[in-house]
From TrEMBL:
Pfam families: AAA_22 (PF13401). Signal peptide: none annotated. Residues 40-188 form the AAA+ ATPase domain. This is ATPase. It comes from Sporolactobacillus putidus. SMART domains: AAA (SM00382). It comes from the Bacteria. One of its GO terms (molecular function) is ATP hydrolysis activity.
Amino acid sequence: MLDFFEMKGLPFTREIEPQHLFSSASQKEANARLEYAVQHRQFCLLTGEAGMGKSTSIRSLVHQLDPTRHPYLYLCDSSLTPKLFYREVLQHFGIKPAFRSTDARRQFQSLMLDLYENEKKVSVLILDEAHYFSETMLQELRYILNFKEDSLSPLALILVGQPSLRHLLRIKLLEAVDQRIQMRYQMNGLTEKETQAYIHHQLKVVETPHEIFSEEAVQAIYQFSQGIPRKINTLCSQSLMDALIQGHKIVGESHIQRAINEF
């Protein structure tokens, strides 16, 4: 495929380097809010449908963090429990966790305060797949954020999940957690114009010397994907393979339709 389409790498993969990520309006907004939450040590909620680009925003944020000022930990565990959370954080920072959860919680609080007050560091904790968290884990967020009688925040906590997480946090039992959220953002799909720019960007990154997707193909991609980047990637990859098999240098609407049929 690379030789046939004169590419220097495979486009439409998730292995793209952070500096080459495409910035849509929604991505820029998400990135700005995440950066603000880190700078001001806030509790941030980032939501969006599957494949919308939440992980891309997190990758972009992490790429920009100065590790000497903002040590971070990314946890992606749908079955995360309070005990596992404290264990992962403490081990990440080189501390042996206590056996009891209450003791581990105290270790965690001492660690975060020490990093902030003595080392002048603001830790960034990112919890992904949070829409799968149990009520117990979501309730624990109150204690994760409670320092000095709830008067200080020495860290930035970013909760990432699908839109159902927003609704879950609105139930009465989690009201105290929901009230603590200082920054919220729900990611949206690409517009048709952004979809065209996204496809062009992906091909530019792999240094393709000419356009490959026709205007009709781009329109068909947008109509099917509704601007969801992961769907765009899959559809573009499948249609490129279809065009390669047929010996066509340009991906047209017919290639897109055949790729759609594979779904």
